[in-house]
Amino acid sequence: MGLRIEPLLLCSAAVAAGIAWWQGYCWEDIINSVVDKLAKAMPVIMILICVGGLIGSWMFSGTIPYMVYWGLKLISPEYILIAAFFLTSVVSVCTGTSWGSAGTVGVALMGVAAGLDVSLAAAAGAVVSGAYFGDKISPLSDSTNFAAIVADTTLFEHIQHLLWTTLPSFLLAAVVYLIAGHSNMLGEVATPQRVTDIIHSLESLYHFNIVLILPPVIVLWGAIRKKPVIPLMLSACVLALFLGVIMQGLSIKQGLDAFIDGFDIAMFPQGAEGVVADVPRLLNRGGMFSMMGTILLVFCAFSFAGALTLTGALTIIINRLLTIIHSVGQLIAATIGTTILVTGATSDGKLALLVPAELFKDAYRRMGLDTKNLSRTIEDAGTVIEPLLPWTSAGVYMATTLGVSTLDLLPWAIQCYAAIFFALIYGFSGIGIARTASASEKSPQSSVTE
């Protein structure tokens, strides 16, 4: 129907608040629940504001254009999707952060895709797939550690068991990206002459030097060392502004304008004169104010989550669901459905792992299943699904950072959703299902129905 998601979330919040009032809660209880949720969203909001400033300042310094410049030189259109997928996968595995890899390497790769005239939705989907591959299996990832803890299993048993669903998903995504790159699925890509023109335009605007990669290096180093995100990003912004003044000959005022309002090619003395039309579209972006619409979406989503949580509706739904589960496949399917439901309803990635783990842990044990099956399933349906829901903090961040709407990139984020299908296949077939030592001595049928 083409309706905006913000008013839909506000209407849903109003309905949830009405139900809470009908249950006997007063207005103060409802508003306090909403405020508590919004308080938890404040770090996300601050990070989003910093991301806007970071993109603007990196455009100002020439950091992103420098990475795009080399990407256009080294990557052909046929391999941009697989390159985006592999590069973000490596960075996210090494750093344990999907947001960091998408906000650094991912942004540069989106610039390369724009320069090559490749489908931005496909490129964004490949970036999100790669970024969340590492977030899912890296021992440095907080979500990976959290899933293991709440499911009562060890970290490395959890990661090893994740490979059953994650590796097939990774290979499937890689094959699709290779096929898409060598077919007409990406539309008409840029001609070699057009790519050359963009490269020459970038060379005419910026003074490129290897030191321009220092800001993203600092961000990635900080991610590996688990430094606080907001001070780290602001430090990278300050360094980028300094590089823009020193390397590009721009003024401090222009740097602050880029940081707050976004970069504009008109800041250069020659402006857009003599550059191809694609370059301004590539460079004119970023700034803290560019995140205001995104922050409104976060506000609406967490307001709905606060009102809904107060009603206890999720607990009632899930407890009813537990009464109809009689097989391993049904249990896996119920865990997947519950995790997605909690993710969408609360917009909270950690809560989406915690709630299903607490509710289903005993059911897994009663069926003689090792709890690493539970930790794997909540990651398959939680960690990597969150960026595919437009109103969650991860979905908002990825869409805003990469400049592509969540629903547009969703079909191409293959690694994120393919794991669910493998999890269901394993659940109903018994393949890749780990049982406890006592249950493994019984027949498969008896361990399911006991």
From TrEMBL:
Listed InterPro entries: Na/H_antiport_NhaC, Na/H_Antiport_NhaC-like_C, NhaC_Na-H+_Antiporter
Annotated compartments: Cell membrane
Keywords carried by this UniProt record: Antiport, Cell membrane, Membrane, Transmembrane, Transmembrane helix, Transport
GO-annotated molecular function: antiporter activity
Residue span(s) of domain Na+/H+ antiporter NhaC-like C-terminal: 130-431
Major location category of this protein: membrane
Membrane topology note: Multi-pass membrane protein
A GO cellular component annotation in the UniProt record: plasma membrane
A Pfam family that the UniProt record links to this protein: Na_H_antiporter
Segments traversing the membrane: 42-67, 79-99, 105-133, 162-180, 205-224, 231-250, 288-314, 321-345, 412-434
Family stated for the protein in its record: Belongs to the NhaC Na(+)/H(+) (TC 2.A.35) antiporter family.
Protein's name according to its UniProt entry: Na+/H+ antiporter NhaC
Organism expressing this protein natively: Salmonella typhimurium
Lineage: Bacteria, Pseudomonadati, Pseudomonadota, Gammaproteobacteria, Enterobacterales
